[in-house]
Amino acid sequence: LDGPEAIAKDYFQLLDELGIEKAQVVGCDSGVLYAMALAGLLGERCDGVAIVSTGVPIKSLSTILKMPASSRRTFLVARLSPSLLYAPHRVAANDFHLSKDGEDRLVRYFFEGHAHDLNRVENDPFFYKAIRNLIAFSFQDVERLVHDVTYWAQDWSQLLNGLPKSMPKLSIVGAENRQFKTQEVLAWCEANGWQASVFEDE
After folding, report:
1. What is the mean pLDDT for each group of 10 consecutive residues in the chain (202 residues)?
2. N or C: where does the chain have the smaller number of CB atoms within 10 Å of the terminal CB?
3. What is the pTM of this model?
């Protein structure tokens, strides 16, 4: 599969065809890979880049080992032996699409061990639907999903090198982000000249 740098060229061409001279670029979760690649390609044409719930480039296994169990399982395999992710992800996608029970299992899986969020899943229809739709989108293309997680689980610092120093850069992170430790994200932002914004979970 084409990586973020190759796909960013398609986005760049689309902006040209639409006559869009300037753009702000936003990436959420693994979408950071594509956002960074496009922002770097746009250069001075990019008015700013924002990344949401993305974490930081993963330079060592210690970052992965601090993640919640559901994320840790996936990221650890993605880091060490990514080809092993394809079969279980295809099984999970089939389970998700075939029945409401399967959908419920997958939605709850991502909040394993977190009573507060599990309670929201069970009692907040809007929250449930948001998570359900995110999973459904991810499972539209299992190969792309595994490819992106594999890239995300590595040190993607090289994508930062293409960003002009003058470009406004913002990282948005939850005050109680369980996948990526908020304090580590804030420290990374300060060290790398990024603005940080922390939002509270109401």
Report:
1. 88 96 93 93 95 91 88 94 96 95 92 84 92 93 94 91 90 84 91 91 60
2. C
3. 0.84
